[in-house]
Amino acid sequence: MLAKIFIKRRFKEGKTLEVLALLHDMRAAAMNQPGYVSGETLMQNDDPQKLVVIGTWQDMESWHQWKADRKRQEFEAMLELHQEGPTEYEEYVVGTKLQ
Questions:
Q1: What is the distance between the terminal CA atoms of the chain, rounded to a whole angstrom?
Q2: Rounded CA separation 77/91 (Å)
Q3: How many domains does the chain have?
Q4: In contact, 23 and 82? CB cutoff 8 Å
Q5: Residue 37 within any structural domain of the chain
Q6: Per residue in 4-22, pLDDT tens?
Q7: CA-to-CA dists, residue 88 to 7, 97, 98, 99, angstroms
Q8: Number of C-beta neighbours around residue 14 at 10 A
């Protein structure tokens, strides 16, 4: 089932260029991963230090494999240097499961 991942981060002022470059490189690496579908980055209108990345994966397992990947963890560590607070993750599946 298609997975949508919302990744929320708040960055320190003055770090926008570094952060956007890291996010670009991280997405380029994700594009080569099995199950990757698409991604987009949103900047909050009233607070440009707050970004949300929405990743779409073919299934939750593909996302979890990428989340645990060593290369992704390296990107995450670099991003955390510029962050105010921890990264927040929300995982959703597209559609509903009725039982």
A1: 15
A2: 21
A3: 1
A4: no
A5: yes
A6: 999 999 999 999 889 999 9
A7: 6, 25, 27, 29
A8: 9
Neighbour tally for 3: CB within 10 Å: 20
Look up the domain containing 20 and give its range: 3-93
CATH code for the domain of 20? 3.30.70.100
Nearest to 60, CA basis, from 86, 95, 27, 23: 95
Taking 70 as the threshold, does the pLDDT of residue 41 lie above it?
yes
Q: What is the CA radius of gyration of the chain?
A: 14
Question: CB–CB of 2/93 below 8 Å?
Answer: yes
Q: Is 40 helix (H, G, I), strand (E, B) or coil?
A: strand
99, part of any domain:
no
d(CA 85, CA 31): 27
Mean pLDDT, the chain, whole residue set? 94
Question: What would the pLDDT profile of 66-95 be if each residue is shown by its tens digit?
Answer: 999 999 999 999 999 999 999 999 999 988
